[in-house]
Amino acid sequence: MSKRVALEASFAVAEAARMADVDVTAAYPITPQTHIPERLAEMVADGELDAAYIPVESEHSAMSACLGAAAVGARTFTATAGQGLELMHEVVYVASSMRYPIVMAVCNRALSAPLSVWGDHSDAMAVRDTGWIQVFCQNNQEAFDLTLWAFRVGEDPKVLFPVMVHLDGFTLSHVTEPVILPEQSEVDRFLPKFQYLFALNPDKPMTHGAFGPPEIYSEAKIAQEVAFRKSKEIILQGWNEFGNIFGRHYFPVEQYRTAGAKTLLLTMGSSTETAKIVIDERRDKGEAIGLISLRLWRPFPFEEFRQIVKGAETLIVLDRCISSGMGGPVFSEVRSALYNEVPKPKVVNIIGGLGGRDISENDFEYVIDRSREIAKQGSEKMLETVGVRGKMIGIRG
Amino acid sequence: MEGKTIKFGKNLVTTRESLAPGHNFCAGCGEALALRLALKALGENVIIANATGCIEICTSPLPYTSWRLPWMHTLFENTAAEISGVEAGLNILMKKGKIPQRDIKCIAIAGDGGTSDIGIQALSGAFERRHNFLYLCFDNEAYMNTGIQRSSATPYGASTTTAPAGKFSIGQITEKKNMVAIAVAHDIPYAATACHSYPFDLMNKVKKGAGIKGPAYIHILSCCPTGWRYPSNLTIEVGRLAVETGIFPLYEVDDGQYKLSIARPKLKPVEEYLKLQGRFRHLSDEEIKKIQGKTDRKYAKLRAKVAASAA
Question: Fewest C-beta atoms under 10 Å: which of A342, A386, B135, B186?
Fold first, then answer.
């Protein structure tokens, strides 16, 4: 029997790693990720988890140790946030190119300077091109579910890519909510043992990580890209099977009251749940408004996304990150995904929730009203924000 | 690839070549020779993690490989961390019965830049965590792979492309970083120096280091005709002179106890070593005298450590 317990999202992630019977965790503490490695270290110390916990001296070494462990066929997990993800940046690329199916939880955090340990999506957006399968969580249950699912998908012999599970720093990582924990037997049914075909082994010497001269680098990268896009099939299959076993269903683009919606709001991560309250109120008053959330960030779910937003007149994209001199990175991608579509909604971008700034219900009210104005005017200012004391810095009226 | 063993006195050397021919090392490369010898000493039950550097670049142009051993390369500064993961991974998989129990030696290979500069943090971490691995630093005293840029292992007075000798500079103005002392400061069970010009000493140390439980470190002077600017047929001689002049003494540190591997009653003048190499060509007699003085002092310090260990 599965059981419903109160669990912090970080502990839910650690619990998923435990139930997945990870072999190796290498991690370096960084706020707001600390509760994940702490819990795993505790499990190892108490014998609840038979694993090697490597207390490395940096995030760069955390991911590097994960590469070594994965290369010999160990099920490997790590977690980080913000600056930590930036420090391991070059190693993050290597994990995907070498096809090591490492699972990493990222407790999304702003980037310095000014120093901020609080949440936004700057760290996630900085690694969007690294070749990892990436998903975003909205609540604690999803943090558990998607961590478990990540092993299953990443380790599939047809995939062999690392998977990043994004959960918002503090607003998820440190929040306690009810979580349904499955039976170990159900987990075992969902997640087969990791059998890595290319494990380093003296009986069958293999070279991992030969360098790519110009004669072959392009072919290697394109082969990787083809395989990465193909992984979508297994991603969907994984969610399908997850639903069959655990009764919770996941989709590349999640929808909330979207039927017949003329206005769609797009969010990612934990702010989606706040947005739902506002959508409910407006829907109940008869507004044709709905909410969508990108669950699958990479590979980008073009098909599902285009299908879902087809009938809308306005699409509002809330970004919790700035691509300097450009705007919101999610907005840029979403608009580019729609560019050749006919018909297509007007896409409006609002930036907010930076460095742990709350996005309240009132903020969402403003986001929706302001976006509709912008859509009606047809004009587009370079920078639209929510929750920022604009007069102070002279960016608005 | 089973090799016959040939008897050389008490040493047994396999004819098996774990480093396949066809690699891209320069003619007369001391590092290639040192690597070949080290691999002979290591045997086949190994997994190797290799930092970016001459060895990596000369042995693994996709789709070719010179490695007849399980080998991985990812980045420049992370080799000690990577081998930490390999070791921890193997141990736990064996403990959980997921792979058969056996003694697989975990070997990290890096150059002087990958060790004493960019990789020193990861190496210090791996030493401190007491992983069971042998770290081989192939020291050719500069970033040779990228074109002879200075590193912290470049000796005083050497001319390199980023610390060139000129009207107002003698080239490298700093002293060679003492990596063995840094390794020893981590209280690791075994550290040593070696050079390809003393092949049996090198192989014995590698064998010994690989057999140690816990972290072991061997710093291997690898003479580089390209970067040091000497004719490629002098590699063995240059390596011998480095040892005979006391510039690069061969010694072991066994559980903190220093022992000279080759104790010469009298050292040759450093000039004999320096004058063979283009990188020192600009040095005045006065500078050479300075280097002689420093070498003597460092050698005396080492002898004092050896004497203190024996006492």
Answer: A342
